Amino acid sequence: MNGRSVLQSENYRLKPLCRGNASELYPLFSDSETMRYITPHPVGSLTEMEQKIDRFTGKNDLSWLITDRRSGNFVGVFRFHKIHSFHRKAEMNAVISRDYRRTGVMTELMPVILDYAFNSLHLNRLVGDLFEQNEGSKRLMEKFGFHLDGVLRETDFDGAEFHNTYVYSQLRKEYLQKYKSPGSTIYLVRHCETSGQEPEAQLTARGLADAELLADFFEDKEITRILTSPFRRAVDTIKPAAVRLKLKVELEERLRERKLSGTNLPEWETWLRRSFEDPDLVLEGGESGNAAASRGYEVIQEAEGDGPVVIVTHGNLLAFLLRNWLPDFGFKQWRNLKNPDVFALRVNGTEASLMPLEIRNKD
Question: pLDDT tens across 266-277, in order?
């Protein structure tokens, strides 16, 4: 099996691994120094690399290619393997290229990986088996709350000597206790592609198709409530998901789009940029970014503790909302938002984290 979802953090993207990635993986997997904590037998040809990818995407594996979101550069590979659906357990491993080693790649990706393991795959136990000498990975396991189950003596031979294996594991209940309590996930959604900006503007054909993809995405998320802007494009974005989940769509006026000005502005993007630089800026007949974010944030606070909740809104309001957790989110990041876009807000007491998600298995 291959990774069915595209996962991402602030700087890295995990894309489903395929045979076409063999040329990218070959320099990494043929490097004996890189593979020293994994196998004494680096791959010797592209054909052998393709065969290894076939194993990585087999029945009991989920594998992703890690890339740099900014440059597109190859970073490494991450895998869940030995997946057992009945016992709900799996093992994991990662291989990072020399250029990105010791730069915090896995530290940044681990929250994404753990969330997918326990909340999408619904694993009960996740295991990391490490060579005793792999100090960096041992520190990573301990940093993210993995328990050292034990040390297996001289389990692997590298051609010169035998090595002990350190076995770390994390259980679902430990993950939930540390990172998430029931009702602590809020999905912030920007509406799908629309034919216009007026309140009654309809979704385009692509927008309607993406609304079905959103329904697929939310089908197994155990959603308990759906709140949306009353604008038609927002309602139609989440309607297919609501039908599948048999949930009422709750119209929430505070999620309407921010109004920049009461009149048409020929240079509206210039004024919008200025409003990101000065979030208290108010144009005649309009609303400041901070004021819009404040009403939207009220909805989020009221929804906390209600179980996993979906909140559907608009790009401008969403951008100012995201600044609560991403202070540098500005005009440039607003322009890079997609229709639709989904962010998972994880709330645990007074702590919160934000993670962008993908609903399509492509860039």
Answer: 899 999 999 999
Decide: residue 150, CB within 10 A, 0-12 exposed, 13-18 middle, 19+ buried.
Answer: exposed
Alpha-carbon torsion (172, 175, 177, 182), positive or negative: negative
- Tally Cβ neighbours within 10 Å of residue 154: 11
Torsion of CA 149, 154, 155, 157, to 10 degrees: 150
Whether 22 and 77 have beta carbons less than 8 Å apart is answered as: no
Domain count, the chain: 2
Distances 327 to 4, 108, 265, 284, 321 between C-alpha atoms, Å? 31, 18, 27, 26, 10
Domain that holds residue 344: 185-357
Q: Are residues 162 and 270 in the same domain?
A: no
* Domain shared by 244 and 331, yes or no: yes
The pLDDT tens digits for 134-178 are 899 999 999 999 999 999 999 988 778 898 999 999 999 999 887
Residues 240 and 126 in one domain: no
| Close Cβ partners of 159 (under 8 Å, ≥ 6 residues apart) | 40
CA distance 270 to 28: 46
CATH number for 136: 3.40.630.30
Structure confidence at residue 182 (pLDDT): 46
Indicate which CATH number applies to the domain containing 217: 3.40.50.1240
Q: For residue 57, which amino acid is it?
A: T
DSSP state of 120: I
Decide if 204 is inside a domain: yes
- Widest Cα–Cα separation across the chain: 77
Q: Answer yes or no: do 124 and 257 share one domain.
A: no
Residues 174 and 194 both lie in one domain: no
Asked if 152 contacts 165 with a C-beta cutoff of 8 angstroms, the reply is yes
